[in-house]
Amino acid sequence: MESILQINKLLIKHFGIPKRQNPLPDPLDTLIATILSQNTNDNNSYKAFNNLKNAFADWGEAADARRSTIEKLIKVAGLAPAKSKAIKNLLVDLKAKYGKLSLDFLNGLSNEETLTKLITYDGVGVKTASCVLLFAMNKNVCPVDTHVHRTTNRIGIVNEKTPDKTFWALNSNFPDGIAHSFHTNLILLGREICKPTNPGCGVCPLKKVCKFEPKNFEMKNAKPNKRILLLDNIGI
Ligand code: SF4
């Protein structure tokens, strides 16, 4: 396995240290934003999240709203029927079980316990739950989306067939304190350089350590992606 620390250093040299939201976003906001972000881009999920926040005084009001109202508000993010159902069910369940719209019940739990609790909700998988841990609870957990799955497997850090398997393999022995920069910079790498087809190996900061073969040297310049990531810009 290539050293995650070494890869992280090379990524930081190329992309810099990603900024974090300060103060960190609320965990429930983060969970809802991550549900909205599934299968769409950050611009659309950002709009959908703001539509929800602007339409209701608080999540309690959203819990009492019709599912169809939520569906209309989040249409821009796609899969609105399923996402509105997941959000409505989550809010109603939190209100019924804990009497308040918050994820405070997760405080004091281990990362594994938090993941186990969150993935019991419809529409919340390992990736979504791990985003709450990293972005809102400041845990050293590296969520694995399609970019992180593709890049870590190409580089040779893991050898797994699915994002969830990559998540467990990657996080089984993850170095302290670098999950946010590593995760965020791998997303930038995947968006700008290590694309699904025709990766830009010639302009890649990892070309000397990456195990992927055959490398592709067609790309001459990497186009910087809009470097705004939804989960570091919730409510901003
Ligand atoms: S060298 Fe090529 S395959 Fe490896 S990470 Fe860079 S772009 Fe991806």
Structure description:
With 236 residues, this protein is mainly alpha-helical. It folds into two domains: 4-20 and 143-232, Endonuclease Iii, domain 2; 27-136, Endonuclease III, domain 1. The chain is 51% helix and 0% strand. It has eleven helices and no strands. It has helices at 4-15, 27-37, 42-55, 59-64, 67-73, 80-98, 111-118, 126-136, 146-155, 163-171, 179-192. Helix 2 crosses helix 3, helix 2 (27-37) crosses helix 8 (126-136) and helix 7 (111-118) crosses helix 8. The longest helix has 19 residues, at 80-98. The termini are far apart. The relative contact order is 0.17. Iron/sulfur cluster is lined by residues 151, 154-155, 193-194, 199-201, 204, 206-207, 210, 212, 215.
Low-confidence stretches: none
Structure summary, number of beta strands: 0
CATH superfamily of the largest domain: Hypothetical protein, domain 2
Q: Would you tell me the structural class of the helices and strands?
A: mainly alpha
Bound molecules: iron/sulfur cluster
Count of domains: 2
CATH architecture of the largest domain: Orthogonal Bundle
Please give the count of helices: 11
- Binned strand content: under 5%
What is the CATH C level class of the largest domain, in words? Mainly Alpha
Give the termini distance in whole angstroms. 38 Å
CATH fold call of the largest domain: Endonuclease III, domain 1
Q: Helix share of residues?
A: 40-55%
**Bulk shape:** globular
Query: Major β-sheet, in short?
Result: none
What is the CA-based Rg, rounded? 18 Å
Compute the average pLDDT: 94
Order of helices and strands: HHHHHHHHHHH
